[in-house]
Each structure stands twice: as structure tokens, then as C-alpha cells.
């Protein structure tokens, strides 16, 4: 099984498509505040995977990076594996689902062109660098979403 997990060592990508088709895709449904309580080592998962930098659209964390809801995480993983139609179906069940796709449209488009984790990380880092440069030059950008401090903080973590 492929698990969207903060303990993964590589990003979910098209390389995981066959595994996901065969074994499935999962997330752990828990509060981000209680993530340390999750016994990741005990989970039966052969492929823990990370997700690249994305912005939430759910009402609880709207506009915040990297703390996706379960449906956002599943949908993002599906899009990265080439299953955009299923991702749209999942997000369509939520009033705010379309907003996730809208907020992340440009970066998801770039991520979905990638074949493997290394390419996704490269795209992510280039995009974050570009956003930081835009921020530092104080040029308006539809991608900034008013998260100047979050972009810089996320880039330092990567």
C-alpha cells in the first residue's frame, strides 16, 4: 500500500501508479496537532510517500501550506499519479473541493508533468525559489496567496 505520510522519504509520483492500482492509496486520518501520536512504524505500509508543497483549501486551514486534509492529500496523490478524474470526483464531494484545485492549479500542472519523485522535488524547489524572488521584489503574483512568511519558512525546511 502507498501511504501519504510525513515519514516518507520520497514524493508520490507516476512511479507509484502500478503500486497504487494493485495495493491501494491511504492516508492517516488524524489532527496535524496529534501527528506525533500516530505509530507510523506499526502501520503495514510498504511505500510511505510525501506530498510536495501545496496549499490547503479546506475551511479549517484555508491558505496554509503543507497541512492538507485527508481528501486533499488523496486527491493530490492521485493527480500526481495521473488519476486527475478520480481526484476531481473526490474533491467534488466537498463544497470547497474546487478551491483546492484552483489554488494549486499552476503548481499541480507542473508536478503532474513529472515522472518521479526527484523531478517533483526539483519542480517544488524551483517554484518556491521563484515565489521567494517574487516576494522579495514585491511583484504581485496570483500564486502568493498572501503567504509571504509561509513560503520562506517552507523553503528553509526543504
UniProtKB/TrEMBL annotation:
One of its GO terms (molecular function) is rRNA small subunit aminocarboxypropyltransferase activity. Pfam families: Ribo_biogen_C. It comes from Brassica carinata. This is 16S/18S rRNA aminocarboxypropyltransferase Tsr3 C-terminal domain-containing protein. It comes from the Eukaryota. Residues 5-128 form the 16S/18S rRNA aminocarboxypropyltransferase Tsr3 C-terminal domain. InterPro entries: Tsr3-like, Tsr3_C. Keywords: Cytoplasm, Ribosome biogenesis, rRNA processing, S-adenosyl-L-methionine, Transferase. GO terms for biological process: maturation of SSU-rRNA. The keyword Repeat does not apply.
